[in-house]
């Protein structure tokens, strides 16, 4: 199951499987981890975006 790492300060959603140095995840100040895709969908409707650095690891548009 994919785990998501949510950056609430910058409103970015990372995927823990593919997170990498370009994500600057070590500097995330307000962080939440979840594996609930419903939460991710709700956040996307609140203008949260999927991080392009870790989502591009598998191509496109994966949730
Ligand atoms: Zn990322």
**How helix-rich are the residues, as a percent range?**
10-25%
H/E element sequence = EEEHEH
Please give the oligomerization state of what you see. single chain
Helices, by number, come to: 2
Decide which structural class fits the backbone: alpha+beta
User: What is the number of independent domains?
Assistant: 1
Whole-number mean pLDDT: 87
Q: Provide the spatial order of strands within the biggest beta sheet.
A: 3-1-2-4
Shape estimate: globular
Which percent range describes the beta-strand content?
15-25%
- The value of Rg in angstroms is 10 Å
Ligand species: zinc ion
Count of DSSP strands: 4
Low-confidence stretches: 59-63
Largest sheet: 4 strands, mixed
- Straight-line N-to-C gap: 11 Å
Structure, explained:
The chain is of the alpha+beta class and 63 residues long. It has one domain. Helices cover 19% and strands 22% of the residues. It has two helices and four strands. The chain has a four-stranded mixed beta sheet with strand order 3-1-2-4. Strand 1 and strand 2 form a beta hairpin. The longest helix has 8 residues. The C terminus is likely disordered. The structure holds zinc ion (ZN).
Supply database-style keywords.
63 residues, alpha+beta, four-stranded mixed β-sheet, globular, binds zinc ion
